[in-house]
């Protein structure tokens, strides 16, 4: 492992459906002494609500506030691989916290993301008539941030979780 990685957190950023949770978990296993955490999962456990319910009942701003609080609570941990909600990078304060660790962007083509999440109803931002168009728009809006990551790993359609995790560990 590179010296900068010894004990520092690894933050996975990227769009919903890019595989942050499954690939992050696999990376943590490969690293041996790292734990995997996921901001959405922690938020759901803490509130007893699903992400979709939080959006519906409290609105996106409240969700973003809560998501920032979760990051606050976990960024002081060490030796964690942390999957972040796709829009978490947008707030400057969140972005500065990610800088305390190593930021890895899982870059996946919009069509591949669309194929993966098609028919899935737990992503409130994609519950509309044009989910593929929305995915493309969100990637464009977030590109500036995503591509500022320390490491960018391109995950192609033919790569499974194992391939993606291997590519990430090699890139670290
Ligand atoms: C969001 C991504 C979701 C979740 C929420 C908003 C986004 O997380 O936080 O639906 O703005 O891209 P995943 O990226 O883990 O799906």
UniProtKB/TrEMBL annotation:
Biological processes annotated in GO? amino acid biosynthetic process; aromatic amino acid family biosynthetic process
Which keywords describe this protein according to UniProt? Amino-acid biosynthesis, Aromatic amino acid biosynthesis, ATP-binding, Kinase, Nucleotide-binding, Signal, Transferase
GO-annotated molecular function: ATP binding; kinase activity
Q: Could you say which protein family the record assigns here?
A: Belongs to the shikimate kinase family.
- Supply the name of the protein: Shikimate kinase
Source organism: Cyclostephanos tholiformis
């Amino acid at each position: 492992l590179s010296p900068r990685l010894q004990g520092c957190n690894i933050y996975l950023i990227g769009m919903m459906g890019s595989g942050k949770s499954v690939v992050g978990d696999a990376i943590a296993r490969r690293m041996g002494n790292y734990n995997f955490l996921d901001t959405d999962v922690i938020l759901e456990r803490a509130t007893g609500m699903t992400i979709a319910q939080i959006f519906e009942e409290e609105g996106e701003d409240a969700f973003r506030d809560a998501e920032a609080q979760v990051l606050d609570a976990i960024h002081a941990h060490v030796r964690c691989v942390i999957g972040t909600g796709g829009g978490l990078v947008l707030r400057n304060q969140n972005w500065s916290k990610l800088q305390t660790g190593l930021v890895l962007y899982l870059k996946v083509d919009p069509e591949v993301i669309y194929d993966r999440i098609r028919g899935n109803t737990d992503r409130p931002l994609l519950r509309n008539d044009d989910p593929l168009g929305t995915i493309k728009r969100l990637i464009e809006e977030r590109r500036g941030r995503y591509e500022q990551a320390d490491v960018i790993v391109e995950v192609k359609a033919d790569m499974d979780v194992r391939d993606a995790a291997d590519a990430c560990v090699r890139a670290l």
